[in-house]
Every structure is written in structure tokens, then in C-alpha cells.
Amino acid sequence: MSKVYIALQDNEESHYIVEAIEEDNPDVTVIYQPAMIRIECEGHMVIKRETVEEKMGRDWEIPALHVNLITLGGNVDEDDDQLSLTWNN
Amino acid sequence: MSNKKLNMKDKYRLLTRDLEWEFSYRDRKEIFPQEDFEGIKITDWSKWEDPFRLTMDSYWKYQAEKEKKLYAIFDAFSQNNGQQNVTDARYVNAIKLFLTGVSPLEYQAYSGFAHVGRQFGGVGARVACQMQSLDELRHVQTQIHAMSHYNKHFDGFQDFAHMHDRVWYLSVPKSFFDDARSAGPFEFMVAIGFSFEYVLTNLLFVPFMSGAAYNGDMATVTFGFSAQSDEARHMTLGLEIIKFLLEQHEDNVPIVQRWINKWLWRGYRVLTLVAMMMDYMLPNKVMSWQESFEVYFEEAASSLFKDLARYGIEMPPYAADAIAEKEHLSHQAWSIFYNYGHAAAFHTWMPTAQEMDWLSEKYPNTFDKYYRPRFEKWREMEEAGERYYNPTLPMLCQTCQIPMGFTDMENPTMTSYRQSVYDGERYNFCSNGCKDIFDHEPEKYVQSWMPVHQIFQGNCGGPEMEDVLGDYYRINLGVDNLDFKGSPDEARWNGWHNLQSAEDKLKKAS
């Protein structure tokens, strides 16, 4: 199975997003590199608005991910509640 | 009427569907004249879907936020004399190469997307191209802005746009984009959306930028990551256009496969510059070229091609050639630039003993066997006061325009050399990929502006080296070029940090 991945800038806001991703996707691997955090997972990964809001303690919308996003790999599906990455293989 | 707030999907549908109108008094072919000639068949543009479903309001909102963050950091960097806090002044030469070689490509991308955004019959594709065009304009502006600070303190930044159009090694990235922009709109999308965004920028803007951070360059890492956050959207779009074309008509499959083959190789060849930036120009090392290549090229490409397999798309045959070169590429590239250090608008140098040990460790199968002996010989010559500069002009590959310095992977001490004859003239290539690309469209590539040919034809300022490098390229000779050791950059850096150059130390000791 191929790995989907997302890389975020290493900053305060991203730490909450990473926490949320880890909670919703128990199988992810989180790799800290200079100035960035790479999160990868076999096949599928989801970022849920609700979990991120809970971690941040405030409202947060999915497109706000772009502010801290560096890169990603996988087929993207985005709506108001979640953004998911999937490889169909 | 309901006051219910629209969700993202509805907003996107309204933006990309309801804005379209029927053309009642003009033929569609007149309105979109470039849509057919490449052989691509589109049966239903409404199947185009932007996975991010980005609407204008959220585009402006989040792009503005990215810019605010970015400019706050540029201000902090310059207010705090950030140029003095990078690891080592040699590092700044990677940024010179970036400004002269890469930033002008962002401008080409802006202009290319503005063009193709007019040519597509589907409104979803037009909106996506318009946003991408604006992104690319933002990238070139923020990059020039970030690097303008370095221009106040280091040499070699002053004439980047002039140089981009003329200097021999900058013809490598420039001709890559010229090639894409002179193709049809669908090929441009595959070339840039796939090759440039997926293959190139991911390697340049992710591991290299992480390296910039590790070398204290706050301004560069920030514009890099900020640009790449747009590129993540572009990559997704690149993948989307490929899937869209493949789903529209089975006749599109062989055309798209050929474009993918071509542009994967074209993009990979441009990455040669990034390979040496990673291994030779970052004083503090994060990961080697080979390691980044394995993650962002091999692994990413294999996931992508497995995903595309169900459409009948296969991994390009040249991917194996690229993989075979991963333990050699950066060393061969740096050797070329060290050879021609007098003809480059940035400084070159031999790695320190410690840096060579790092290269041996990262490249156990190749560095000591093929490259260390040569590098140690060059270092010896340098210490004897005879720093080696190659006085000849190199033969260039007709397709990628890189000097023919790559070797045969079966026999790594022999130059890889291919040729084709077209219309009675012989053309030279560095690889099977470059030869095949030429053979498919010789009429296009025989017109390439080859820097070395142009010099010999007398089109570059005059017959002497100084005419070409000084007058035509506008390199400040003895200032921008030559070895880092003994350069004004080095003297200034040492002055800031109260360091002595090796030469001064020797003088004082004697």
C-alpha cells in the first residue's frame, strides 16, 4: 500500500493539527524535520474540523489548513468537515 | 428564499457552473481555437472537479493571511541583520542560483497559466488556471522581495533577470519552461502541473527549504514553504487534470503517457541543480540528495503511478535511469560547476575534509570510488596556487542543455553519449530520455538557443571570455565569479565575524 503524506510548518497552530491527526488516525507516523513536520500513513489519512477545533479550543475551518501547509501526497477530497488523502492502491 | 449559508461544495458549483454561458452567435472552435490540435478529446467539461473546491472569497482570505505572515518574517529578518546569521557565506550561493534560475520560472508559470486559462472550454479549469496564475505571480514577487535583502550584502544578485535569459547554465531551467509554454494548453498543464509541481518543486521547496531553515535562513525557508503551500494545491490540480484527461476519452491515454514520459525526464534533468544545492551548498546538512530523492521522487512517483495504473498509465521508462543516477548526480553536477567556476555568477569551492567525509558516509558506493580522488587532486592544485578552471567550452545536450558531463551508469567513468541525425545535422544528447524527446519533435528542438553554439556563432558579446562573461552575461568579473576563497563575499563575511581568511592567517604566521 502507498503512503499518503502531509507536511506542515512547524509552529504552534500546526501542533494542534498534528495532535488532531494523530487522534483520528492512530497509525500515522510523525517525523520532525528542521522547520517542518511530516505526517505519513499507509493508504488513507483524514483531518477533521471538529477534532482540530477541540484541540485548539476555537473555531477553525478546513481551508485554514493552507496557511500552515507545505505539501501533501495522495488524492484529495475536501468538504466543510474534513480533508482526506487517499491512494487507491 | 432561504438564508441558509452555502456549503463549500455548493459555493464551488455556483462559481464554476453558473458563471458559464452558451455561445449563441460564435462557433466554439473560434472561441477556443487551441483546444483540438493536440489530439486531446474532451467530451464533458462539467466533469472537471477541483478537489479543493476553492472559491474566490476563501482564496483571497487565506492568500492574504499567508502574505501577512511572510512579510512579518521578511521584516524581522532584515531588522535583525539575518544575513549575518546564516551558517556560512558559502550558503548564500545556493540562493543566488535560486534567484537567477528558479524565480524567473515562477514568472513564466504565471504567464503560462494566464494563457492556458483563456484556452480551456471548461469554466472549472479556467478558474483553477486563473488562481494558479495569481499564485505564481505571488511567488516571483515574494522571492525577489526576500532575496533583495541579500542583494544589499552579497554579490551576484544584481542582474538576475538579464542573466536568466543569457547565462549558459540558466538556459537549463529557462529552456524547460520555454518548451512547456510553446506546447499546446493540455501539454502545458501536464508539463507544469505534473512535472514542475509534482516532481520539481516538491524536491526544491521541501527538503531544500528545510535545509535553508537548518542553515539559519529564515527568509528563504518562509517564502519557500509559503510558495509550496500553493504548490500543494497545484500538485493536486496536476493530478486532477491527468485523471480528467484519461477519463474523458481512451484516445487520450497514449498522448498523456507520452507527455508524462517526456516531462518526468525534463523535470528530473532540471533537478540536477537542486541535487548539488542539497549536497554541496548547504553547510549544515539535513539529508542527502539521494535520501530526498528516495522520499519525494521514488516513493511519491511509485504511489502516483500505482494509482494511475487503472487508466493504463505506466511508470515512464526513464524513471529507472533517474533512479540509477541518484548516487552520482550531485557529484557530477558540482564537478561541472567547479570546472566552470569562472563562468558562473556565484562562487564554487571544494568541500572541506569534513564535508567530504559526510559525502563518503552518505554515498558509500560512489563517492570514494569515483569522486573523492578527483576532488582531492583539485584541492591539491588549489593549495599549490593553481586552482583548476576549465578553459574550453562544453558540448551541450540538445534537449536539456546541460553540459555532457553525465556518465553511463553501467560504466560510471565513461561519458554517456547519444546522437541523432536530423536534416543532415548531427545532434548530441546526454541520455536516452533526452534523445527520445528530440527524436519525437526534432523540428522543435533544432531551434533551441544553445548557449555554447551562440558563443561560437559570435552572438554573445564577442570572441573573448571577458566579452561573453562580462559584457554579455553582466557577471562582475573577479567579484561574482571564481572560487569562494578570496572572494569579496568571503572578505565581507569574515569582517562581520572578525574571522581571518586562511590566506591572511598564513601571511601573519610568516
Explain the overall architecture.
The complex is a heterodimer of chains A (89) and B (510). With 89 residues, chain A is α+β, with helices and mostly antiparallel strands. Chain A has a single domain (3-86), classed as Phenol Hydroxylase P2 Protein. Chain A is 24% helix and 43% strand. Chain A has 2 helices and 7 strands. In chain A, the strands form 2 sheets. Chain A has a 4-stranded antiparallel beta sheet, with helices on one face. In chain A, strands 4-7-6 form a 3-stranded antiparallel beta sheet. In chain A, β6 (75-78) and β7 form a beta hairpin. In chain A, α1 packs across α2 (49-56). The longest helix of chain A has 13 residues, at 12-24. Chain A is globular, with a radius of gyration of 12 Å. Chain B has 510 residues and is mainly α. Chain B has one domain: Ribonucleotide Reductase, subunit A, CATH 1.10.620.20. In chain B, 60% of the residues lie in helices and 3% in strands. Chain B has 24 helices and 4 strands. Chain B has helices at residues 8-16, 28-31, 56-79, 92-101, 103-119, 123-151, 160-164, 171-181, 185-205, 207-214, 218-248, 252-270, 272-280, 289-308, 319-324, 329-339, 353-362, 367-383, 432-440, 442-445, 451-456, 465-472, 488-496, 502-509, and strands at residues 407-408, 411-415, 418-422, 425-429. The longest helix of chain B has 31 residues, at 218-248. Chain B is globular, with a radius of gyration of 24 Å. The mean pLDDT of chain B is 93. Chain A binds chain B through residues 2-4, 7, 9, 33-36, 62-64, 66-80, 87-89, and chain B through 7-9, 51-54, 58, 61-62, 65-66, 69, 202, 205-206, 209-211, 213-214, 221, 225, 228-229, 231-233, 235-236, 239, 286-287, 299-300, 302-304, 306-307, 309-310.
